[in-house]
Amino acid sequence: MKKYTLKKADLQKEDDVSARQTRFTIDYRNQLNPAQYEAVTAVQGPSLIVAGAGTGKTRTITFRVAYLVELGVKPESILLLTFTRRAAQEMLRRASILLDSRCEKVAGGTFHSFANMVLRQYAPLIRFESTFTILDQGDAEDVVNLLRTRMKFDTRERRFPRKQTLFEIFSKSVNTHQTVKHVLKEEFPHYEDFLEEVLALHKAYTAYKAGHNLMDYDDLLLHCRTLLRDHDQVRNTLSERYKYIMVDEYQDTNRIQAEIVQLLAARHRNIMVVGDDSQSIYSFRGATIRNILDFPETFPGCGIITLEENYRSTQPILNLTNEILRRARD
Amino acid sequence: MTRHKFAKVLFTRKTGGELPSIVVAANENLQSRFIVQKVLELREQGVPLNDIAILFRSAYLSFDLEIELNKANIPFVKFGGFKFIETAHIKDLVAYLRVIENPRDAVAWNRILLLLDGIGPRTAEKVIDEIMARPSALGGTASAVPVRLTEAASYPRRVHELLEALRAVAPDGLSPADKVQQLLLYYEPIFTKRYDDYNKRRKDLEMFQQITERYRTVTALLADLALEPATESVSDITAPGPDDEKLVLSTIHSAKGLEWNSVFVLYALDGRFPTYRAAASEDAMEEERRLMYVACTRAKENLYITYPINIYDRESGLVLTKPSRFIEGVSENLLDTWVIDEE
């Protein structure tokens, strides 16, 4: 009798991929334009999808999720990071309609929700309890205010920075990888005389959060990054769990988010980022356009696919918007 | 060499379409009245109000227009404003849950103590210090809410009632929905006393309770509330109905990812958009340009860029008269120029 053994399919091997493609339920080639098709089928290694406005970015990501699942990738090992949870849910919902309910098992969410999930599991490694609670911006400002009063910095004759300003300085320092001193000097030079107090306050704020098992939004990303960076076991476990990573709106990520992506993908390099550098408008929140612009250098060998066919506007409107872009710095 | 952009030239297979327009107004109010008139015309042509958006660089730039829209009885929504989770009464409820979850959360303790009549910041701090100092209060388990405070006698009765209420809902066996239901009973007199418009706000509490039904643990509930403050407060928006056809006013930042049949970009005036402040840095100026790009790429059929002239800028001491530099000098083949003629 003939003996059959099961061999694990290798997605790196073209034969295996094309063998699977013949059984696909979705006709990817006909449902997508050529650039979208290229993006959807770029599976192994790093790739950057530069998706112009209105070029069917959501459709492309949705089809790519379905494609990966049809290829035999376990849905649980796909991680889709988006800017809002609604975006992730919507894409996975559409993928489920497109293919089947396997797509619902894909891990999707925001950077913050991903970080939260990681931290709930590993908080003790960075001396937090898993029951830490999260401070929103208002709460965080209140803590800063409380400490400012406690440290008697607000009784000076000269005007000490307001709690909102102080928190903005702290937050910006985290998000832009600058020292508090640098941010103060650059953005609030008129408060430079208070450098010592601001630094003391920053230290007190950090200690307060650690002492009360609290994290603000920035901490979620920061601590997650630290966990991934300093704990090989955590990084390896997560890289093993998420073998295919996709990030949407990459032009709006900040430095720490980019580091998280790099750490997660360092091992397998199966990373696809999608975004439009021309729509990067959140630098005031710490986003840096450099993440997307430098992505090909960060991940050498990265494929770049540009989506240019627009499904939204008339050609006269596109002619004008193309012109606005053409005049941008080269 | 440092890369500054990925070149891209967008195209469509759709045919036809009007040239976008740039419209100069002699002053701000004329700009507003022009937009009002044009919006009514579009509506007349069958474009629903909610398929028309007015976009601007900064929220304050639409104030004059808002007045004109009100005068013309054109309903509109403006994107921005309070989110559900940021409203005071929801924050109160969340604070109760937070101290059950993490008894070291002094921020939440402070909030719920200050809600009590006769408790000021000093008493609150004393109570919090005592809670923090007791190892039994730590550890993050449900039983961690302190049974008794040592200086019990010196604290107002209300502090004890609060601790009593928290202890009652602390057990792990209770679902988040059960906990919230019980907490709402405790919170009721505080709520009605504290907020004059409690009738309006009550809908939010109901909605909150409804949300908690979906959760198995308080941990998950709290994390989601903190991370996904998506729902808007009932008292801020009216429930959408079939007649809910409203013009959209939005900052460009809030308009990202959206699209409308017709888009107006107002105040495309150099010094306002780009803002005068961006002139100091090339990076900032490039980001302003991208903002203009994002604004204009929201339009499907009609795009009107408007700007008023003779606007005095207090910060710079200049009178602003030129169109946005991102538009100025664009070929006539790409953009129709119009001047408003008042009849």
Poorly predicted runs of chain B: 137-143, 230-242
CATH T-level fold name of the largest domain in chain A: Rossmann fold
The assigned CATH architecture of the largest domain in chain A is: 3-Layer(aba) Sandwich
Q: What is the terminal-to-terminal distance of chain B? A: 56 Å
Mean pLDDT of chain A: 92
User: What is the domain tally of chain A?
Assistant: 2
What is the chains' assembly state?
heterodimer
Over the alpha carbons, how many angstroms does the gyration radius of chain A reach?
Answer: 23 Å
Largest sheet, spatial ordering of strands of chain B: 3-4-2-5-6-1-9
Helix-strand string of chain B: EHEHEHHHHHHHEHEHEEEE
The number of strands of chain A is: 8
Question: What is the name of the CATH topology of the largest domain in chain B?
Answer: Rossmann fold
Shape of chain A: globular
